Amino acid sequence: MRVLGFILRKEFRQILRDKTILAMMFVMPTVQLIIFPLAMDFDVKSVNVSVVDNDHSTYSRSLISKIGSSGFFKMISSASSYKEALKSIESGKSDVVLEIPAGFERNLVREGSQKLGLSVDAINGSKASIGGYYLNAVIADFNAGLDVNLKNRNTASQKIEVTFSNWFNPLAMYKYNVVPAVLVLLLTLIGGFMTALNIVREKEIGTIEQINVTPIKKWEFILGKLIPFWVIGLIVFTVGLCVCFVVYGIFPKGNILLLYLFAIAYLVALLGFGLLISTYSNNQVQAMFIAFFFMVIFMLMSGFFTSTDSMPHWARVLSEFTPVTHFVKVDRMIILKGSGWNDVKTEFFYLLCFGAVLNGWAIWNYKKTS
């Protein structure tokens, strides 16, 4: 332990002397955690609509007014023909073209039905699907409120009405889903890159040769490299939780000590992975590119952008072999749902296994040469 203490003293002095590294590890995650969730808002709030009204009736004007007043749509143009309205989609000004056919009101009153034309720009698949769903919902609500349908409604018929509530996120606000995941990803990027460049930096400046001829054991060297960034990672995590509360009003509903227990286990696994990359790399460029390759995979497979349940079977299996997936899941469960130990204990053992395997591999792969 005395030898480990000397290594830790040397590592902390080296980190504290480099002001750039300190700024990267504390200032950058804080700024990014403030900006990213605000920019990464996947809620569709403004869908541009071009209307082709071939009927010019009371019903058609009421429908257009209802769509415009819903708060989700912006009526940008009223075209005289479908061909003219389509040009607004081609130019990128419109997201949806709504075509109301001639005889819209007459057919609704006399025949009880009428089709509408709806053309959606599907280049942005998310905006197209959600915008189309919103518009269909507004049209369905308009249809249900028509006088002709209210008069013809059979009061004796039974009707099933569905009411629902959003648990853990009552207003269905996207920030509550994305902020905890962004915190994990920033912790992953900072911790992964810093440790991936750590040992290889010693190789480049030549101090690794001096360390290798000392009686320092391999596990002491790896542990001495891991602990400083583990401490810094916990500080960054604490700062991130403070930002979540101050900026977004998000505070863990579950036990905060349980959250820190998982952060401790996750950082051990993550930093072990970074040190493993560093033992295989000969220079910092190699380490940076290898770390970047795996970090992109971790981000895409973690369930942050796409739910793991929506992935193909092979992708779900692969995601289980990334520690980020498990911590993102637990982070959301504890912060948003208030989950307890019994709900997340399986994920904890996953992280322990990752930490043991990755750090053991790093110790085994580190070669001392005389």
UniProtKB/TrEMBL annotation:
Pfam (any one): ABC2_membrane_3
Family matches, as InterPro entries: ABC-2_transporter_component, ABC2_TM, ABC2_TM_bact-type
Sorted UniProt keywords: Cell membrane, Membrane, Transmembrane, Transmembrane helix, Transport
Membrane topology: Multi-pass membrane protein
Keyword Nucleotide-binding: no
Main location per the UniProt record: membrane
ABC transmembrane type-2 domain mapped to chain residues: 144-369
Cellular compartment(s): Cell membrane
Classification via Gene3D superfamilies: abc type-2 transporter like domain
Ranges that cross the membrane: 21-40, 178-200, 227-251, 257-277, 289-307, 348-366
Family (UniProt): Belongs to the ABC-2 integral membrane protein family.
Protein name according to UniProt: ABC transporter permease
Organism for this UniProt entry: Danxiaibacter flavus
Taxonomy of the source species: Bacteria, Pseudomonadati, Bacteroidota, Chitinophagia, Chitinophagales
